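For the sake of transparency, this paper describes our internal protein records without simplification. The remainder of this section carries one protein's record, kept here as part of the documentation:
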Amino acid sequence: MEYFKKMAGTTKSPPGVGFVEIVWSWIGAFLGIASVAFVNYNIFKGTDLVMIIGSFGASAVLIYAAIRSPLAQPRNLLGGHVISAIIGVTAYNLLDNFMWLAAAVAVATAIAAMHATKTLHPPGGATALIAVIGSQKIHNLGYLYAIIPAGSGAVIMLIIALLINNIPKSRKYPEFWF
């Protein structure tokens, strides 16, 4: 019975945020994703390179809307995506005949590695999974996937976060770098 009591929660839901905070979160997310998507659809058009991956949507939530979270800090954003990308590519290369196993190994190992390196960034789990279940275009990148799109896309989003999150006096980003 004690086990099930844990599932009841121990605190109240946090308060909502004000309209101004919502607007700045929207502006940051719009500009961050727009910047990465622009590179993807205009600069890399006609190449085999991919710049935008689904896990960047989750990163946008953290670095533009939950900017004080330890999971949203630059070390976590960059390290989480790059480490997880490397692990995902490795899992795919070693276990591509067993995709269900490659997917599970990639995500679980990425989580363990992010914990061990103090770079826990939840979208990193998705970055590792995308390396396994992604299209042939993703698989063709091999370890370049860790640089383009995972690392460079995260850098672009970080630059936008630094610029936008520090405009209003009520916001400060980052909380820490290392």
The chain has one domain: 21-165. The radius of gyration is 17 Å. The CA atoms of residues 71 and 121 lie 5 Å apart. Residues 21-165 form one domain.
